[in-house]
Write a structure and sequence with these properties.
By secondary structure, the protein is of the alpha+beta class. It has 7 helices and 9 strands.
Length: 204
């Protein structure tokens, strides 16, 4: 990566050496967010796409794990695994819109000498996208259970998929307006974060 051309607001000069020889896709021109951090998750590089998805203030110097909210435990485990194994670790997550199904992949790469990583590189990419046949129907069929209820996480408002109790999605339409017939539970990431994993929703 050509770090000379990245402005200082987006790249900590002390971190540049860890990115110089990286054989990675073009992060500067990427459509989706990519960022790099020191091992304590302090941001040291963000690509231009990063700022399109993040509020101002979460730039260099902020800690990724502090911004992760309910995903903190999950993200921390991915960071630890990348450091321990020396390999990229992937995490898939759903982010549907009213128009389409979308599934993203976050890949976290260790940076620095093998066995003694000094930083981490995180790249988000869209891996699946296809249009709903009918946006409203797609949501209803996917999230309403046989009793006609939609289950929301009481903490983060993820929505549980009907028939797949372990899968909870962030559904923008349901975040804007709570649908009728909603009950509340606790999603697995929140159960892990708030209760040490003991209070996940029971399967149906
Ligand atoms: Zn939750």
């Amino acid at each position: 990566m050509d770090t000379e051309r990245v402005p200082r607001e987006r790249l900590d000069p002390a971190f540049a050496r860890l990115l110089v020889d990286r054989d990675v896709p073009d992060l500067e021109g990427a459509r989706w967010p990519a960022y790099a951090m020191w091992l304590d998750s302090t941001l040291a590089y963000v690509n231009p796409a990063y700022h399109r998805g993040m509020p101002p203030g979460w730039g260099l110097g902020a800690r990724v794990l502090d911004a992760a909210g309910v995903l903190r435990a999950q993200l921390e485990a991915v960071h630890d695994e990348a450091c321990a194994t020396g390999h990229a670790v992937a995490l898939r997550y759903a982010c549907p819109t009213e128009q389409s199904e979308r599934e993203f992949e976050l890949r976290v790469y260790p940076l620095g000498p093998k066995g003694a990583p000094e930083g981490l590189l995180a790249i988000h990419s869209l891996v699946v996208e296809h249009a709903h046949e009918s946006p409203q129907e797609a949501h209803e069929a996917r999230y309403r259970d046989l009793g006609g209820m939609i289950r929301h996480c009481a903490h983060c408002r993820r929505t549980r998929r009907a028939g797949a109790a372990e899968v909870w999605d962030l559904v923008p339409a349901y975040l804007r307006a709570v649908p009728h017939g909603t009950s509340h539970g606790v999603c697995p990431p929140c159960a892990a974060h708030y209760f040490g994993g003991d209070l996940g929703d029971e399967p149906e």
